[in-house]
Amino acid sequence: MKLYNFFRSGTSYRLRIALNLKGVDTEQVALDLRKEAHLSKEFKAINPQQLVPALTLDNGTTLIQSPAIIEWLEERYPQPRLLPQDPEARAHVRALAAIVGCDIHPINNRRILEYLRKNFGADEAAILAWCGTWISAGFDAMETLLAADPGRGAFCHGQAPGLADVYLVPQVESARRFKVDLSRWPLISAVDAACAQLEAFQRAAPAAQADAA
After folding, report:
1. In the chain, domain spans
2. What is the assigned CATH class of domain 87-201?
3. Where are the transmembrane segments (predicted)?
4. 204 vs 21, 69, 185, 189, 195, CA distance in Å?
């Protein structure tokens, strides 16, 4: 399998974590978004949306969109589980992941920020304020949900990392990059620290990628 990704992309990062947790090895193909390598005709033939990540399977099928790929992983490689068995707990974990995947990341990703810079004249202070606003709103909600969850352990839910952690850790990394003070979310910080002890998360981190610079 070939994984087309960028070391600093949050969606690529979350998929690398999921692949590592599942023990699935891939050949990584780095696309430097800073040089707009993802906009090439060659990559458009692989992923018409020209976004990372994309995962090309051994049979030539290419999967796109990190939520869809992670769902495929959960179905194709059911152990270890990323979702709990209880339906209500599964909904809770999916909701935590969706706060990041639907409400924080999409409006803070590179193409949105580039549009703000080029079309609205946003300087770096404005970009940091923009990102901090949406990260803070999402993290405030997540912190409250974590505090109210009787099933919370060292991770977002339970004593093993799951889907919510896969989404949360890259967003914490992004928060640091955008200079957001994480001290106001001690539970989120504790989950991030617990995940940082695990090899699956360590190997997926942006700084551990061959193309990191």
Report:
1. 2-80, 87-201
2. mainly alpha
3. none
4. 10, 16, 23, 18, 11
Residues 163, 72: Cα–Cα separation, whole Å: 13
pLDDT at 151: 84
pLDDT of residue 63: 98
Instruction: Annotate 84-107 with DSSP letters as a single string.
Output: -SSHHHHHHHHHHHHIIIIIIGGG
User: Among 41, 37, 44, 42, which Cα is nearest to 7's?
Assistant: 37
Model confidence pLDDT, tens digit, residues 139-158: 999 999 999 999 899 999 99
Q: At what angle do helices 87-98 and 124-148 cross, to 10 degrees?
A: 170
Is CATH 3.40.50.300 the classification given to domain 2-80? no
Is pTM beyond 0.90 here? yes
